[in-house]
Specification:
This protein is an alpha+beta fold. The chain folds into four domains: 74 residues; 110 residues, Beta-Lactamase, CATH 3.30.450; 89 residues, Signal transduction histidine kinase, dimerisation/phosphotransfer (DHp) domain (Helix Hairpins, Orthogonal Bundle), CATH 1.10.287; 150 residues, 2-Layer Sandwich (Heat Shock Protein 90). The strands form three sheets. Strands 2-1-5-4-3 form a five-stranded antiparallel β-sheet. It has a five-stranded mixed β-sheet with strand order 7-9-10-12-11, covered by helices on one side. The chain starts with a helix and ends in an 8-residue tail after the last strand. The chain is built from eleven helices and twelve strands.
C-alpha cells in the first residue's frame, strides 16, 4: 500500500508534521502547567483590585485607603497590605495573620514566572505590588490556586490544541499531499515512459515538479530522443544495406542461373555473364569492406597509427594517383600548398583514404573542362585542407546530411554502380573525427563544392 514514492513522501511529510506538532503540544502543556489560566485570572483580579484601591486613595474627599482596602478585601476575597517607605506593615486586612507576609524581595522575575510570596507558615500567595505617590507600597495578594495536571489538560490544553492544532494538522497534511504529488507525479510519468521503451511511438515527458526532477525529465527526454534516432538510423542502415546488396546479388544470381541452365549458350554471352558476376561481386566486396571500416571506426578499434605526416607530399601523391582518371574525364587538378607547411600528427594512410574519397567524389560530379583544387594552409592552431571542385554543387537542404551513411543528395545523379553506395563521405567524416579534427562542406548549386578539413597541429590523444 505504501510502496509508491508518492505515499512514502506523504508519510514522511506527515511524520515530520506530527512530530513538530507533538513538540509544540509538549511545550504548550509545559507552559500551561507553569502558568495556568487560573493563575492568570487571579493575577488580573489582583491588579484590578490594586488599581481601584490606589485610585480611591488618590482622590480628595474620598474614603481613606484603610476603608477602601477593607471594602475591596471583603468584596473580592483578597488580602490588602500597605507597607511604609521602610517596608514595614501599616495595614493588613487580615488582622489575624498580620505581619505573616513580609515585603517581597525585588528579584528579577524569570520570563513567564508568577509573582509569588510565602507567608511565615509557608503558604504561597500570588500578589501585585504598586508604589504609591506618597512613598508607601500597596500589595494585593491572594492564595495561589491549587491545580492538577488533569485540570490543566482538560480545561486549558485540550480546547486550545483542538482549536488550533487539529486545524493546523489537517491543513499541513493536505499541503504535504500536494507536495508529494508535485514531486512524485513527474517521476511516475518518467517510469511509465521508460516501461514503454524502446517503442518508437514513445513521447517526451512534460517537465514539471522541482528543479532536480525537471533536470531528470529533460535528461530522460534527451535519452529517448537519442534512442529513437539510433533506432531510425539502424532501420535506415539495414534498409540501405539490404538495398545495396540486393542489386548485385540479383545480378549475380541471374547470370549464374543463365550459365547453369544454358541460356548463356555462346562464348560471348558466357564471358559477359562472368564479367558482370565479377564486377558485382567486387562491388559487394567493397561495400562489405566499407561497412567493416565504419564499424571499427565507430567502436574505436580501427587501426590508426599516429606519426608526423608531410601534408604537402601526401596531397601531391593523391593528385598524381588520379592523373589517369582526370585525363579521361577532361578535368584538371591543382595543388596549392602554403610554403613551409608544418607537419601534422596523423595516420598517413587514413588521411590518404580521406582525400582519395573526396577527390573521387569531386571527380564524379565535375563536368569536362572543370577543375579540382587541393589547398593546405595554417589557421591558428589548426591545419586547413580544402578539396574544391567546380561541379554541380549540393542542395542547401542536403548539406546537413551529406556525411550520413548511404546518403546521396540527388538519387538521379548516382550515375550507376561506379558511384558506390554513399559511404565514402561517412568514412571520411569518421576518420577525421578520430584524429580530433572536423570536416565541413560549403556548396552552391551550379558553382561547385568545397570540403574543408581542420586537423589540430598539437598532439591529440587518440581513442583506443
Amino acid at each position: 500500500m505504501f510502496s509508491s514514492l508518492r505515499s512514502r513522501l506523504w508519510l514522511s511529510y506527515a511524520f515530520i508534521i506530527i512530530t513538530a506538532l507533538g513538540l509544540v503540544a509538549v511545550a504548550l502543556l509545559a507552559y500551561l502547567l507553569r502558568n495556568p489560566i487560573s493563575y492568570r485570572q487571579t493575577l488580573e483580579r489582583l491588579q484590578a483590585v490594586q488599581t481601584i484601591v490606589a485610585e480611591r486613595a488618590n482622590v480628595p474627599q474620598s474614603q481613606s485607603i484603610f476603608a477602601s482596602a477593607q471594602k475591596a478585601a471583603q468584596t473580592f476575597s483578597v488580602r490588602v497590605i500597605l507597607f511604609s517607605e521602610d517596608k514595614q506593615v501599616l495595614l493588613d486586612t487580615d488582622e489575624k495573620q498580620k505581619d505573616s507576609i513580609s515585603f517581597p524581595e525585588q528579584k528579577k522575575l524569570r520570563r513567564n514566572a508568577q509573582p509569588i510570596v510565602r507567608d511565615k507558615k509557608g503558604a504561597v500567595w500570588l500578589y501585585s505590588l504598586e508604589n504609591l505617590p506618597d512613598g508607601t507600597y500597596l500589595l494585593v495578594a491572594s492564595p495561589r490556586p491549587r491545580i492538577s495536571f488533569l485540570n490543566v489538560f482538560n480545561d486549558d490544553f485540550l480546547p486550545l490544541f483542538f482549536q488550533v492544532g487539529v486545524v493546523a494538522l489537517l491543513l499541513s497534511l493536505v499541503v504535504a499531499f500536494f507536495f508529494s504529488r508535485w514531486i512524485a507525479d513527474p517521476l511516475q510519468k518518467v517510469v511509465v515512459a521508460a516501461r514503454s521503451a524502446p517503442s518508437a511511438e514513445i513521447k517526451a515527458v512534460e517537465t514539471s515538479g522541482p528543479h532536480e526532477v525537471q533536470e531528470l525529465t529533460r535528461a530522460f527526454n534527451a535519452m529517448i530522443a537519442r534512442m529513437q534516432a539510433s533506432q531510425r538510423s539502424q532501420r535506415e542502415f539495414v534498409a540501405n544495406v539490404s538495398h545495396e546488396l540486393k542489386t548485385p546479388l540479383t545480378s549475380i544470381q541471374g547470370f549464374a542461373q543463365a550459365m547453369l541452365d544454358g541460356t548463356a549458350n555462346t562464348d560471348e554471352s558466357r564471358e559477359q555473364a562472368a564479367k558482370i558476376i565479377y564486377a558485382e561481386s567486387g562491388r559487394m566486396h567493397r561495400l562489405v569492406l566499407d561497412l567493416l571500416d565504419l564499424a571499427r571506426l565507430d567502436s574505436g578499434t580501427a587501426d590508426i597509427t599516429m606519426s608526423p605526416v608531410n601534408m604537402s607530399a601526401l596531397l601531391n601523391a593523391v593528385a598524381e594517383k588520379f592523373s589517369p582518371q582526370l585525363q579521361r574525364a577532361g578535368v584538371t587538378i591543382e595543388v596549392d600548398i602554403l610554403p613551409s607547411l608544418p607537419t601534422v600528427l596523423a595516420d598517413g594512410d587514413r588521411m590518404a583514404q580521406v582525400f582519395t574519397n573526396l577527390v573521387d567524389n569531386a571527380l564524379k560530379f565535375t563536368p569536362r573542362g572543370g577543375m579540382i583544387s587541393l589547398r593546405a594552409s595554417v589557421q591558428n592552431t589548426e591545419m586547413l585542407i580544402s578539396v574544391t571542385d567546380t561541379g554541380s554543387g549540393i542542395p542547401e537542404e542536403a548539406q546537413a546530411h551529406i556525411f550520413g551513411r548511404f546518403y546521396q543528395a540527388d538519387p538521379a545523379r548516382r550515375g550507376g554502380e561506379q558511384h558506390g553506395a554513399g559511404l565514402g563521405l561517412a568514412i571520411a567524416h569518421e576518420i577525421v573525427q578520430a584524429h580530433g579534427g572536423r570536416i565541413s562542406v560549403r556548396s552552391r548549386l551550379g558553382e561547385g563544392s568545397s570540403f574543408d578539413i581542420f586537423l589540430p597541429l598539437l598532439k591529440t590523444k587518440m581513442p583506443k
